[in-house]
Amino acid sequence: MDINGIAYDEKNLTLYVNIHQHFRIWIIPFYNAPVSLVTVLRLVRRPSLPPQPSYSTPINPNESQNGSLQKTSSSDKPLYYIHSQNDLYQVNEFFKFFSQFGILSAFLLLWQFVATALCVFGATIFWPVSWVEQNVIGGNKERSIRDAVAG
C-alpha cells in the first residue's frame, strides 16, 4: 500500500488519505487488482492522559544525585482517535475487484464513451429548447422571441 497524499481538515477533524494498493484474494492465485481510493477518516480529539511519571535509570549515575532515578513526564498534546473510516472507490476502480482480466473495466470504458457521445448528441439536438428556456422564459418575466432576439 502506498500513500499518495494526505489532507487534514482541522475544523471538521477529518483526514483525507489518497491510497494506492494491490488487492489480492488468497483463494485465487496470481490475482492482483491495483486500485486507487480515497479514505476519509473522522477523528475524535481526546485529552491526553494525565501525566504519569515514568522513571528511568540514568545512563551515567553521576549525572543524578546519588544515582537516584530521574522523573520524566509525558507531553500535553491531545490524542486523536479514529471515529469512523469510509473508503471511496471510483466506479472503474471498483470493477477491478470483480474483473480478473480487465474485461469489466474495458466494458465500463466503452460505456463511458457511449454515454458521453449521447450527451453531446442530445446537447446539440436540443440546444434550441435550452435557448428558448433561458432567453424567452428565463428570469421572473416572460418575453417574446422577438424581444429576446432584439436584446
Query: How far is it from the N-terminal to the C-terminal residue, by CA?
Result: 59 Å
Overall form: flat
Order of helices and strands: EEEEEEHHHH
> What integer value in Å does the Rg equal?
31 Å
Layout: helices, strands, pairs:
Blueprint: E1 2-9, E2 14-23, E3 33-46, E4 54-56, E5 70-72, E6 79-89, H1 91-95, H2 103-125, H3 127-135, H4 145-150
Antiparallel strand pairs: 1-2, 2-3, 3-6, 4-5
Structure in words:
With 151 residues, the chain is of the alpha+beta class. 28% of the residues lie in helices and 32% in strands. The chain contains 4 helices and 6 strands. It has helices spanning 91-95, 103-125, 127-135, 145-150; strands spanning 2-9, 14-23, 33-46, 54-56, 70-72, 79-89. The strands form 2 sheets. It has a 4-stranded antiparallel sheet with strand order 1-2-3-6. It has a two-stranded antiparallel ribbon with strand order 4-5. The two termini are 59 Å apart.
